[in-house]
Design a protein that fits this description.
The chain contains seven helices and five strands; from the N terminus they run H-E-H-H-H-E-E-H-E-H-E-H. It is α+β, with helices and mostly antiparallel strands. Helix 2 crosses helix 3. The longest helix has 19 residues. The protein is elongated, with a radius of gyration of 29 Å.
Length: 189
Amino acid sequence: MYMENFNLSNILKQEIKKCVDPQYDSLVLLEIPPLPQFGEFSSNIAMVLAKHLKKSPAIIAKEIKEKLEKSLEFSKYFEAVIPGNSAYINFYIRAELFPDLVRGIVSSNAFGRGEKKNKKILLEFLSANPTGPMHLGNGRGGFTGDCLANVLQWAGYDVWREYYVNDTGNQVINLGKSIMAASRFYKEQ
């Protein structure tokens, strides 16, 4: 079952909305859990509905879970788990879908691409100090800055890359003077 274009959070949200009274549609929210063992999505809809329905959140969570499990659309993509006596419902994407998810991301060639934004970013990187010692950070800064600029462009920003050569000014004049003085010193040795 190869899927090219789908949004699992929207599918999940729509399926949960089918389980609640339409007047509470706007209360259906999904969260990304802080730890992977809590699934790919979670919802506190049972706790939110408890005050409206005057029922225990744990009972509401169980009812929603049972309705979702009867839905073919939901079962095609997800499994639902209620940890312990919690009112949270954790949702796990079915493991067999992950290869299709990855194929969809790779074939889209646009995963994470942002809409054009009317914002300019000036990114300055790799400005080595000519009077100080060269170190690993001087070399690392070049490709790190360039990669960051590429990511920002992919996200839709207008990015200008700026690299300062540091070949003018007092520091460079003093560097030249110290090199000249050192060369005279070594000639005399």
